[in-house]
Each structure stands twice: as structure tokens, then as C-alpha cells.
Design a protein that fits this description.
- By secondary structure, the protein is mostly helical.
- The chain has one domain.
- Helices cover 67% and strands 0% of the residues.
- The protein contains 18 helices and no strands.
- The longest helix is centred in the N-terminal third of the chain and has 30 residues.
Length: 383
């Protein structure tokens, strides 16, 4: 960018992230390498712990009232333990997922405070950094917050074209190259395609799309580009993928129709959208799953505060932890970890969270729905 080039044209570098992200790091080029590392890890660690704090705030608002010190400690420890593998992945890979996540969480916090325009702007900032938060735009439309949706679109466009305004390239716009060579690249796959993560059965990619590709290959060995491309062009792959996605979207939509009238359940909606973004996107690696700290925090809060559903929520959390974390790490060994990843166990560990989140919506919406007697009293007062 400093030389008037687009990041995609920077030598042999495969840069697939939005240009806005590259623009933010330009000031670090003036910092010595050692200090640059300190700054980066300070941002990563800081946003991780800030995200954990916002998740705690959202969880406590979902279950208002007195929280004892013991309950708060339990909430913090369990949320951290359940998320620890993905937090470590962010730090190990020097990823920026926690940096994008904090804008999502702050957006949800703004929505719970009734500040829809501010929340929409925060969501748009996350989307400018990482494409998957775009899923919050249809959510704003679903909630009939059209002004907020307009703010989302405006802020997203502004931040996306900002690199071309501040650091105009010598030839093609940054945003044009990024949209053409990255976002729309899978529509024009051909020999020499240099974005292998779009066409791969890599066990590090844990999404519906990658899981179905691995299922159709029937092996625990990475296949060639030609084989994977042929599978992804087949009718059986299309039927399997779109059937799974359609069923999943229908279930989530059914749950959210139940929560639509209750702004107190916005954080649960956000947790469902986070899970959906991870599973429906073409690529999700371990560091992306740091966003699961939100559904984990909400379900841990339910575990603590909802005595009637304690066994159910505890079982669901344990099962999710086993599938998504306990079966693929250094402790169980490389062989077993490989088997778990090739069989997409983290996908199932993430998918299973939809069940207790749906149950949480049903439970809280029923408990907070005014009965006929209270409605009659309120009508009489209003009259």
C-alpha cells in the first residue's frame, strides 16, 4: 500500500484479508520489529480478555439479579476453560480474530442497551475486518431495524473503500482487486488458482462445506486440487451441502422467530449467529472458533442460574467440549487428533450448541411472557 500496490500484488504473498485490515497496520511499519511484536500481542491478549468481560456482562444481563462471588468465579472459569483451546489458537497463530470479535460483542452490548445505530456501526466495523459478520445485516432487517441496517451498510462501504481514499493505488482499486481475486475467486477456479483454502479438504477447516468434502473423499489423507475440485463440482456434493445448510438455517430461523419479540434475548440471537457464521462460511480454522466464548458464557450462566435445566445444559456443554476441544489437542496425541479433525468432530461440537441455545430461548421467552392477568391490569391502568 505504501508503494501504491494492492496487498494481493505484493510478491508471492497470499493476502486474502480485507484491505481495511492492511490499512490499520501501516503505522506498525514505523515501529521496530521487537516492539511491533509486543504491540501485536498486547492487542491480541487485550481483546481476548475484553471479549471475555463483555461475554460476562451479556450473560449476567440474560439472568439479571444477584450474582454471588462464587457464581461469578464459576462463570469466568468455565467460560475460559471451554474457550481456552481457541484462545490459545489466536495467540499461537498470531491471528486477529479476537480483534474482530470484540466489535461484534460490543455491537450486541449496544443492542441490549437499545442503541441500535451504534450497534450496527460496530457490526459493520467487524464486517470490514472479517467478512463473516455480514450475517448481522440480515439480522437487523429481521428485527425490522431498517435505520440500523442503513447505518451498517454505510459504515461498511466507508471502511471498505477507505484504503483507496487514504492510500490510493497506482492502478486498480484495493477493494476491486479484493472482491475479484478473493471473494469472487471460487466462481472462477482454474489451473494456477492461488487461494488453496477455497478448494481443500484440509482437516484444519471445520465447516459444513469442508466436512462434506471430507465425507465424500472417504479418506484421512489430503487429496489433490484436481480431486477436490471435481468433488465440489459434483451433483452429490451440491445436494448434500445445500440440504444440510437449508435444514440448519430453517432450525435457526425457527428459534429466532420465537425470540424476535424479546430484546432481552438479543445476546442469544447473537450466539446463534456466531455459531452460524462459523459453520456456514467456506473456511473456519481453530482461531476463528474463539467466538464460541459467547455461546459458552450464556450457557454457563444458564447452568448456574437455571436449576431446572442444569443437567441438560451441563450435558450439552460437556458434549460440545469433548467434540470440539477434548478430542483434538496435544494431550490426546497427534494420531487421535488427526482422526477427530478428519471426521469433523469440532463441527458437531459447535453444531450441538444450537440445541441448548434453542432451549434457552424457549425457557426465557416463556418465563418473561406476561400472563393474561398482568395484561388486563396494564390495560386498565392505561385506560
Amino acid at each position: 500500500m505504501l508503494n501504491g500496490q494492492t496487498p494481493r500484488h505484493c510478491g508471492d504473498l497470499i493476502y486474502a484479508y480485507p484491505p481495511f485490515l492492511a490499512l490499520l497496520w501501516i503505522p506498525l511499519t514505523a515501529v521496530p520489529a521487537t516492539l511491533r511484536t509486543v504491540v501485536w500481542y498486547s492487542i491480541a491478549v487485550g481483546t481476548v480478555f475484553l471479549s471475555l468481560w463483555v461475554c460476562e456482562v451479556l450473560a449476567r444481563r440474560l439472568f439479571p439479579g444477584e450474582w454471588s462471588e462464587r457464581e461469578l468465579v464459576t462463570l469466568r472459569i468455565l467460560t475460559f476453560v471451554l474457550s481456552s483451546k481457541f484462545i490459545l489458537a489466536v495467540l499461537e497463530n498470531q491471528a486477529y480474530d479476537s480483534f474482530a470479535l470484540i466489535f461484534l460483542l460490543l455491537g450486541l452490548l449496544a443492542l441490549t442497551n437499545g442503541r441500535w445505530l451504534l450497534g450496527a456501526a460496530s457490526f459493520a466495523t467487524a464486517a470490514a475486518l472479517k467478512v463473516t459478520p455480514l450475517i448481522f445485516l440480515p439480522y437487523l432487517l429481521f428485527k425490522r431495524r431498517f435505520g440500523a441496517a442503513g447505518v451498517f451498510i454505510s459504515v461498511l462501504i466507508l471502511l471498505t473503500v477507505l484504503p483507496d481514499i487514504v492510500m490510493p493505488p497506482k492502478m486498480q482499486w484495493h477493494v476491486t482487486v479484493w472482491l475479484r481475486d478473493v471473494i469472487l475467486a471460487p466462481l472462477n477456479v482454474k489451473p494456477g488458482f492461488d487461494l488453496p483454502f477455497w478448494v481443500t479438504d484440509s482437516p484444519m477447516n471445520q465447516t459444513f462445506r469442508a466436512a462434506i468434502v471430507r465425507m465424500l473423499t472417504g479418506t484421512h489423507e489430503q487429496q489433490s486440487f484436481e480431486i477436490i475440485f471435481a468433488i465440489m463440482q459434483s451433483k452429490s456434493f451440491a445436494i448434500a451441502l445445500y440440504s444440510v445448510m437449508a435444514i440448519y438455517i430453517a432450525v435457526v430461523l425457527w428459534i429466532m422467530l420465537k425470540s424476535r419479540r424479546y430484546n432481552q434475548l438479543i445476546s442469544v440471537d447473537g450466539a446463534l449467529l456466531v455459531v452460524s457464521a462459523l459453520l456456514l462460511t467456506p473456511v473456519s480454522s481453530q482461531s476463528h472458533f474463539v467466538a464460541l466464548m459467547l455461546p459458552y458464557a450464556l450457557l454457563v450462566a444458564a447452568l448456574i442460574k437455571d436449576e431446572t435445566g442444569r443437567t441438560f445444559n451441563g450435558t450439552m456443554l460437556l458434549l460440545s467440549f469433548v467434540l470440539a476441544t477434548a478430542t483434538s489437542n496435544d494431550l490426546v496425541g497427534r494420531s487421535f487428533t488427526g482422526w477427530a479433525l478428519w471426521n469433523s468432530l469440532p463441527v458437531f461440537g459447535t453444531l450441538i450448541l444450537v440445541i441448548p441455545l434453542g432451549a434457552l430461548v424457549w425457557s426465557l421467552s416463556s418465563s418473561r411472557q406476561p400472563n393474561k392477568k398482568s395484561i388486563a391490569i396494564n390495560d386498565a391502568i392505561a385506560g
